[in-house]
Amino acid sequence: MAGTEQPGMEQGRKRGADVTHVHVHGHGVDVDYERKGQEYFDQRSLRRGAAGWVLLAGLGVSYVISGDFAGWNFGLAQGGWGGLLIATVLMATMYTCMVYGLAEMSAAMPVAGAGYGFARRALGPLGGFATGTAILIEYAIAPAAIAVFIGGYVEALGLFGLTSGWPVFLVTYAIFVGIHLWGVGEALRLMFVITGFALVALVVFVVGMIGEFDVDNLFDVPMTDAFGASSFLPFGVVGVWGALVFAIWFFLAIEGVPLAAEEARDPKRDMPRGIIVGMAILLVTAALILVTAPGGAGAQALMDSDNPLPDALREAYGGNTFLADFVNYIGLAGLIASFFSIIYAYSRQLFALSRAGYLPRWLSVTGSRRTPYLALIIPGTIGFALASITQAGDLMIQIAVFGAAVSYVLMMVAHIVLRKREPDMERPYRTPGGIATTSVALVLAVTALIAVFLVDLLAAAIVAAIFLAAIAYFWFYSRHRLVANAPEEEFEAIARAEAELDH
Hints:
By secondary structure, this protein is an all-alpha fold. The protein is built from 19 helices and 3 strands. Helix 5 (about 75-110) packs antiparallel against helix 11 (about 265-295) and helix 6 (about 115-155) runs antiparallel to helix 16. The longest helix has about 45 residues, at about 115-155.
């Protein structure tokens, strides 16, 4: 957190002794801090200056782009094209408003903890830990689901003669965790290239479908007798509700860009620009795919497809074509891009929570290349086991979406609280519309959370169980062992000291 520490705090690190124990009561929770010496942070330092705003924008697109290739189309089975359209507009509005709020907070508080750090300052240790846990659930589980989809692609294409998924999962995790261990600059640049290939595949797909577009194809799902049913909403008004979960897949994980704050060149400038440009690109790709895929192939043909873009081309052109095969092969880059980038996200969230003492501190140790190797390897091992044992990609995505929705609610509350409670906080970038903008995101995030809960009770129950275990760990153990001069905690300490001076 170079440039944001108070002189006294830096001196506290240099004194080196892990001796200062402080008991703090705030936000309804008693916590105990100890101040760590410089050696502790030397063992837990990331490589700074590795990413400018262009790489950050690429990271944002990379997180999400797999959602353009698969997943969104299941919303057609819930709400028809009209229902999915309305749901996508609502979720696009939620994410856009949320991104503006995150742009402000990530520039004001450029720390690797991102959402956890924002909520920590606004809502206290418990609120911060709950937000960090929700984000960690999202990012630790999502790669396992994507690994299952990668296995399905490889198997469907007949690559390497594989008929079982687990060897693909093993190779996928080993290669891409390995690249992250090599170094963050190298990983982000490779991620950028892979994402570029995926975007090429989307452009080729859209161009190939334009000539086959027919408005009637959008409305070929048979109308039911549900309340409010029409050719536009074949499953009625309730279909919009069911489609919300799948509309989220067009944008899920863009909020992970601020996790790169400590590795950005100039986070106060680069963070807002990177996340906003990334979101703008995703809005364009979502709109193009939502219109051209069902518009060329028919909404009904794509409702249950695990591979909707190649299937749409085959349906539109009456059989297999070079174009369909090209999009099928290059589309694999979209899944790999999201898998690769979300590994980065879970490692940085785990690193930040561990460095501050909320999770076991040994998880945040970095190696000679300044990468948190245990925070990369341990969730990767768990993800590989989950993918291999369950091979239930849909369930794991639902769990990830539920964790994400919880974090969205808490992060938007954090923005509103900070604007109200700390109006004079330095904000290098300010959200257009202020709390009105993030209030829109908050209302839509609550709506999405309810929708996810109703669509998949099992996913909600699994997330609730993980949450209860994490909160129990915090309450009975880690809240008594927090690190006072971890960057996310120092923001709180600075704010508390300034408040005391004011009084």
